[in-house]
Design brief:
With 178 residues, this protein is an alpha+beta fold. It is 20% helix and 24% strand. It has helices at 47-58, 146-168; strands spanning 5-9, 16-17, 26-33, 36-42, 65-71, 75-78, 100-101, 116-117, 131-132, 136-139.
Length: 178
């Protein structure tokens, strides 16, 4: 089994870059792994997630942790403190110290390929959709063409339409004069 170690770096040199003088800083974090590096952007319109993530990065919280949940064309998740120095076969991903913060969702930020996100418990447990910022995941996803999305939409909507039609459609019975 391959292990992917995470080392995150942020700070003056890599973390905060001012792209245009006088504008808000754009924060980037470099994720160093034993298989290569990834540079991620933290959005300013999610300040709680950005600030808490940067605090954890700067305190070395993620250093030496593993990517422990890797699902093809879906997600790679890591950062759980219990994955650090974990022996092979140990059940990990629950962490030792969850840092829970309020949701900061925006329509223009969606789960597209490459997005950096904070995991959360399912809605039946976590009604307010709070995030566990002590871990993170990167959407692996895949890129879909408009034609593929249209086929998926039709495949999902046609059975729903047929079920609703069967359940609620009542043909109009006309009485013929005569």
């Amino acid at each position: 089994m391959r292990r992917f170690f995470i080392f995150l770096m942020a700070g003056c040199l890599l973390g905060a870059m001012n792209t245009v003088y006088g504008q808000e800083y754009t924060h980037y974090v470099l994720i160093n792994t034993n298989l290569g590096n990834m540079k991620v952007k933290l959005y300013n319109d999610t300040p709680n997630h950005r600030n808490e993530f940067l605090k954890l990065v700067n305190s070395d919280h993620f250093d030496g942790t593993l990517f422990y949940r890797v699902i093809q064309n879906f997600v790679i998740q890591g950062g759980s403190s219990d994955s650090r120095n974990a022996p092979a076969g140990k059940h990990i991903g629950y962490g030792n110290s969850a840092v829970i913060i309020d949701a900061e969702t925006h329509e223009h930020h969606f789960h597209k390929k490459g997005a950096l996100c904070a995991p959360r418990q399912p809605e039946d447990v976590n009604h307010f959709r709070m995030s566990d910022i002590s871990q993170f995941y990167i959407v692996k996803g895949r890129v879909w063409t408009d034609e593929q999305l249209e086929i998926i939409e039709k495949n999902n909507n046609i059975p729903i339409k047929n079920r609703l039609k069967k359940e609620f459609y009542v043909p109009e019975k006309r009485s013929w004069p005569g």
